Amino acid sequence: MTQTIDVGTQDAATDSPASLEEIRSFLYREARFLDDREFDRWLDCYHPEAEFWMPAWADDDQLTSDPQREISLIYYANRGGLEDRVFRIKTDRSSATSLPEPRTGHNITNVEIVDAHGSQVDVRFNWHTLYYRYQNIDPYFGTSFYTIDFSGTQPVITKKKVVLKNDYIHHVVDIYHI
Predict the structure, then answer these.
(1) Is residue 177 very low, low, confident or very high in pLDDT (cuts 50, 70, 90)?
(2) How far apart are CA 72 and CA 86, in angstroms?
(3) Cα torsion through 54, 158, 18, 27, rounded to 10
(4) Which terminal residue of the chain, N or C, has fewer Cβ atoms less than 10 Å from its own Cβ?
């Protein structure tokens, strides 16, 4: 069964607290922080209570739907989990990031405003990341769904769902792959 997602109407873009260009700029900045390995600045893009979830494929057509009861490729209930992950990356306490350090290049396309409610905007976009390590290049691609809060001086992600569409993954997937 294919997952369908309502992408809203033109009214969502009209009622948004931020323009599509401001949203794109924020998304590009978050991706650049990963590519430049500026993990502390990347963490600043997240609200303290931000949920970060990458569900697994239960079968070819269905994603897992409950991170509390089903397997996920990545799940952090709040930014504390992301902070712990960044700590392990920066202190080489992660087999996924041992030397040589990986290189990534994130590309974001098809950014859409799905819904706007108060100071928050739900967005959807496609992404493609190239990952280089050990003289090999691995592609990762998918679709992401963010809720971004624009109420403060800087926008912050309050919810992130990443749908990885690769059929086969050669390495452990980490935050900088997606």
Answers:
(1) confident
(2) 19
(3) -40
(4) N
